């Protein structure tokens, strides 16, 4: 698990295609690897990868064919900058929100403009994941935990403050590029609870309803 608070901007050092999947070497920049061991997890642009080799200020990881298919890893180039975060520990401050490192889909950057000292971004998501994105809710973009300003159908808006621009790869984004999206874990589990289907051939009706959630303050008008 991760928090979505980026610890370092690194870069892709090597990409080695291997019979349908890939092995990648990531230079970690200022990320402290002194407490990292083989088998540990590091999120690279929001994708949870397992460290298989440590080499100076870099690490190697295997990227499965499924990950290549579902994320922007398939388009990565040597030298490309990436967001990095080590897996959280029990003592980690929860500055963002709980992030699994399992990308739900891709989003397309469709608008970028200055907004005072911040930068406004509009991103279009696929309908299959857009339904989980809510105004003032949490979204992970390339591993960065962010608050959604507004939602219009499949498009959502973000304001990126100077600190986030300086410490992530948001300052490298251009209109038309694609980013990794992970929706809030709670949204996925709530949907499952509200739409429970047949279990062992019998219709099971969940006691968790929209009216109950509204009554207890989880949904507001």
TrEMBL record:
EC assignment: 2.5.1.9
Q: Does the keyword Repeat apply?
A: yes
**PROSITE patterns recorded for this chain?**
LUMAZINE_BIND
Q: Which domain of life is it from?
A: Bacteria
Q: In which pathway does it act?
A: Cofactor biosynthesis; riboflavin biosynthesis; riboflavin from 2-hydroxy-3-oxobutyl phosphate and 5-amino-6-(D-ribitylamino)uracil: step 2/2
- Catalytic reactions on record: 2 6,7-dimethyl-8-(1-D-ribityl)lumazine + H(+) = 5-amino-6-(D-ribitylamino)uracil + riboflavin
InterPro entries membership: ATP_synth_asu-like_sf, Lumazine-bd, Lumazine-bd_dom, Riboflavin_synthase-like_b-brl
Per UniProt, the enzyme's principal EC class comes to transferase
Q: PANTHER family under this entry? A: RIBOFLAVIN SYNTHASE, RIBOFLAVIN SYNTHASE ALPHA CHAIN
Q: In its UniProt entry, what is this protein called?
A: Riboflavin synthase
Q: Organism, per UniProt? A: Entomomonas moraniae
